[in-house]
Amino acid sequence: MKYSRIIGTGRCLPDKVVTNADLEKIVDTTDEWIRSRTGIERRHMAAEGETTCDLAEGAVREAMAAAEIGPDDVDMIVIGSTTPDQVFPNMGCLLQARLGIHGPAAFSLEAACSGFIFALSVADKYVRCGDVKTAVVVGAETLTRIVDWNDRGTCVLFGDGAGAVVIRADDEPGILSTHIHADGAYKDLLYFPSGVSKGFDQLKAGADAVQMRGNEVFKVAVNTLGQIVDETLEANSLGKEDIDWLIPHQANIRMIQATAKKLGMPMERVVLTVQDHGNTSAASVPMALDVAVRDGRIQRGDRLLLEAFGGGFTWGSALVRY
Ligand code: ACO
Cystine design at 308: which of 62, 114, 234, 256 (Cβ 3.0–4.6 Å)? Predict the structure, then answer.
């Protein structure tokens, strides 16, 4: 049986940091409210002219260096993002052009905050079936570009960044399983209202920004993430005690605590970046993974549970033997 193994990780954050105190000057909020409701203390924000692809490129270059591979070794690029640089070419192609990769399939997919888990699931399937040997998988976003900076209910939550992994075929696991889901019945709880086909007219009216019924999203997310933890463990005939590290989507510390509680995991075994990055959507899981790999917490052989939940709704998980 063939598996894919993570052989390199990387991340890239914009230089500019926006603290909660900075936001107090923009909207009617307080550092105390943001910290206590979300766990966020600061977030990075792309500079004018800095794009999602710039961040993705930085993360991929780091991951490829860690994996000790060059452009000719890459057989596929899959990038999860809701905030692409342009409508087309897709961001995979834009990345190829920057990295000097010619020929292999490169594409982006859009699953909001679950984008990286979806991308990882797709790439893993190609590796497992033998069509691809080495794949680059990315989650990259500039969500600060699509929030309403007058709406305190959303603008305090999001940040920009990119994370990437390189996976390669191996006889040993590796990625043990991935699980991805969606339910469009929830399309009106978290969305961005306009687009190419519908038109961008609302932009002029100032309503063209992320819309979220936060409280309702929160409840469904906690419930759904609890279920996906069970699904993932059952699929691998494992118990809660078999997981070494939880690497959750970094949307809200209270949501993460609820999932950790469900797993019976102490918070010391949960990788947390929400305080420094805010919610970076598809970038949050691969960036958290990279943080804990590089600071030495995650060791080869550890069992990792990656999970995410986002607009759509979409949700997913990956069980990984690192
Ligand atoms: N500062 C101060 N007060 C605020 C702020 C703010 N930044 N934002 C909202 N409030 C106020 C509200 O107006 C409300 O006031 P009221 O009681 O006078 O009406 C009060 O705080 C409570 O608001 P709630 O929305 O009920 O607060 P809640 O505890 O639910 O926290 C939050 C809001 C943080 C958004 C939470 O609901 C949440 O994290 N939801 C999930 C977000 C998420 O995970 N999204 C999924 C991923 S994102 C993606 O896919 C792109």
Answer: 114
Tokens of 120: 């990882």
Q: How far apart are CA 136 and CA 123, in angstroms?
A: 8
Residues 6+ apart with CB under 8 A from 160: 13, 14, 43, 44, 45, 46, 52, 55, 141, 142, 143, 144, 145, 280, 283
d(CA 227, CA 19): 34
**189-219 pLDDT per residue, tens:** 999 988 889 887 665 555 689 999 999 999 9
How far is the centre of ligand 1, averaged over its atoms, from the C-alpha of 93 (Å)? 37
Alpha helices in 105-213 (DSSP H): 115-128, 152-155, 202-205
Cβ proximity of 316 and 282 under 8 Å: no
pLDDT digits (tens, 9 = 90+) for 68-112: 999 999 999 999 999 999 999 999 999 999 999 999 999 999 999
Q: Are 243 and 320 in contact (CB under 8 A)?
A: no
| Residues 122-157 pLDDT 10s | 999 999 999 999 999 999 999 999 999 999 999 999
CA dihedral 160, 246, 317, 261 (to 10 degrees): -110
Q: Would you state the pLDDT for residue 65?
A: 98
> Can you give the pLDDT at residue 205?
56
Query: Which residues approach ligand 1 with their CB closer than 6 A?
Result: 29, 33-34, 37-38, 112-113, 152-153, 156, 190, 214-215, 217-218, 221, 251-252, 255, 279, 281, 310-311
Rounded Cα distance, 92 and 108, in Å: 6
Report how far apart the first and last C-alpha atoms of the chain are (Å, whole number): 17
